[in-house]
Amino acid sequence: MKWYEEDPSIVEKFLLSIYKYLGNTEEDYRYKIHVSDLIYDCLRRAYYNKIYPTIVDISGALRMSIGKAVHEIEMSAGHEMEIEFEGILGHIDEYWDGIVVDKKTCRMIPREPYSHHVKQVEMYRAMLIEKGYEVEKLAILYIDVSKPEIKAYSWDPQFDPLDVLDEMLTKKAVLLDALKSGIAPPRHVSWECNYCPYAWQCFKEVGGEDDSSD
Ligand code: SF4
């Protein structure tokens, strides 16, 4: 006979604590437009993200809770800074001395920053400049939680902030129209589809008809 036993009741208590820790940010997220809604070229993805409930399995919840905990580590006075532009909300991970840093937990550090991550910090920069802040450098801190390993990429801003703000307003308008009408924005098929959790909803057909207007 073993001197120990597997104890699911402790796992249950831990899981209850994890889901409590993650909280219910979904409702807040669903009814407001966030920078993270606008970073992909495909707004259809953002539309699905708003209308479909998020399903988080246990491994997803564990990853999310690790990500949340890492984000809570304070690096600067501008930690978790909230910013708003024309109803678009941004949560900047860190801002100090003209540097904007976004933290990304991952399971593999990319060889170069992903384009949607670059777009996200460029959007933060445009919003900060619009509010009168100075921004000279942008950075992403990748934190590989599986190895674990960290790497930061930084760069001088690449885009005209006015163009970035225009893009944000255009994307916001398209997304709001879609949410009002219930008709999904057109597909923007690219490499991003490989990592899109809504591919099923996006490409499914019912009775031979394109079911894109649900
Ligand atoms: S599968 Fe591709 S085209 Fe469809 S919503 Fe996702 S990113 Fe957009």
Can you offer a commentary on this structure?
- The chain has 7 helices and 9 strands.
- With 214 residues, it is an alpha/beta fold.
- It has a domain of 147 residues: Lambda Exonuclease, Chain A, CATH 3.90.320.
- The strands form 3 sheets. The chain has a 4-stranded mixed sheet.
- Strand 2 and strand 3 form a beta hairpin.
- The model has no long low-confidence stretch (mean pLDDT 92).
- It binds iron/sulfur cluster (SF4).
- Iron/sulfur cluster binds next to helix 3 and helix 7.
Structural class: alpha/beta
Mean pLDDT: 92
- Largest beta sheet: what is the strand line-up? 4-5-6-7
End-to-end separation:
57 Å
In total, the number of strands is: 9
Helical content band: 40-55%
Largest sheet: 4 strands, mixed
Bound molecules: iron/sulfur cluster
Percent of residues in beta strands? 15-25%
Radius of gyration: 19 Å
Number of helices: 7
* Poorly predicted segments: none
Give the quaternary arrangement of the chains.
single chain
Keywords:
single chain; 214 residues; alpha/beta; Lambda Exonuclease, Chain A; 4-stranded mixed sheet; 3-stranded mixed sheet; 9 strands; 40% helix; 20% strand; globular; binds iron/sulfur cluster
What is the fold's blueprint, element by element?
Layout: H1 8-22, H2 26-30, E1 33-34, H3 43-51, H4 58-72, E2 81-85, E3 88-92, E4 94-96, E5 99-106, H5 115-130, E6 137-144, E7 149-155, H6 161-181, H7 199-203, E8 205-206, E9 209-210
Parallel strand pairs: 1-3, 5-6
Antiparallel strand pairs: 2-3, 4-5, 6-7, 8-9
Helix pairs in contact: 1-4, 3-6, 5-6
